[in-house]
Input
Amino acid sequence: MCGVFGIYGHSEAANLTYLGLSSLQHRGQEASGIGTFRGDTLKVVRRQGIVSEGFNREAIDALAGDRAIGHIRYSTSGGSFLRNAQPLSVNYRHGDLAVAHNGNLLGADTWRARLEELGAIFQSTTDTEILIHLMARSHGTTLRDRVIDALSRVRGAYSILFLGASGMVAARDPWGYRPLVMGELDGATVFASETCAFSLIGARLIRAVEPGEVIWVTDRGTESIFPFETPPHSAGRSCSQCIFEHVYFARPDSHMFGHSVYETRVRSGRILAKEHPVAGDIVIPVPDSGIATAIGYSEASNIPFGMGLIRSHYVGRTFIEPSQSIRSFGVKLKLSPVADILRGRSVVVVDDSLVRGTTSRKIIEMIRAAGAREIHLRIGAPPVTHSCFYGIDTPTREELIASSKSVEETARFVRCDSLGYISREGLLKSVNDPDAPARFCTACFDGNYPEDPAEEPPRVAIPE
Ligand code: SF4
Output
């Protein structure tokens, strides 16, 4: 999962991109980057770590120009190196180009091998660079046409921004896996992964970029194009937006795919309470992402809500950290039990999701050590049984506890007194959209992949 931000036509472009990226920081903390154009010349600064650590006043001041794109990275493809940080930047026969991508392309290894056979040399190990090589081979006469040419050859997930001297292109893949919204600020056009970035800078939300839409922004204004064949509408789907954005990834103050993340989570908690009631003394969330779901559970069950775990905000998120050793260590660093409200009580612990089970086990151990009499774990997502290939770093199937253990076995593993997951239907209902079953991807819960991740890319001619 990554975050992208772009602005076209504002004298404070780099400053605003810095702020936009800061509010998207929850989407990745590995690296950040900003690219700006002054005239025909691109300047890109990329740093490892979070935005506030990587960019000081001097770095921002060096990024002159009235158009910018930015990226924050959590590696889902390629390794965790600075050369994989984005925006990727190149100079080719059409001039300078910067690209910021959220999502994963399918069949990336095959694409890479085919392009290398044709003489391409890659500067990074990210799938995003495949698009740059396809653009370099395109016969399109404008940046817009070269982007469309490249994107029409690939499958998979992209919410992506391209910035060249002639304009900016924003695009979302035809399935619409990952989010992208468009806004306006002082006459400038703005794009971001989440609406919370607009709230910070005072931009007005115009609308979401639609699945399969390409928006071409120049000094003459914006142009919307739907150039791709619509995806095969398997099982009556119109698109396949990631339901996990609502469950965990997005900030609760964002509107995601047209719906309030906070309200979706509260509703999911209410549904969870109906599906898995329990006679507890107190409902506590695993902060931060479990808070809204726990509020909903508490409301519907009439069990008081309390903050039985306190989170330190000065350490990265466990699911985000790529290394298992850091992840295991991280639980104690990040969460601390409030023994005074846990001691002697039957505690309903609400978390957003249960992926490997190792973090939940440590949290339950911590709550029990603080004196809880009983611990009932309630999860705001169905069991995660399948890996994601569309831009989320879920582990391999073998590492997903629900792929091999029943609910009872999982409860024994995490050592809780009872365990209940919201149903897939309940989760879709919580979005409060009657069309949700046709509009959301739930592949990590049911294995119903909109696009087959194992299918090789079609053998199309790549212009030399
Ligand atoms: Fe989201 Fe899961 Fe679909 Fe991936 S597989 S896009 S995490 S719902």
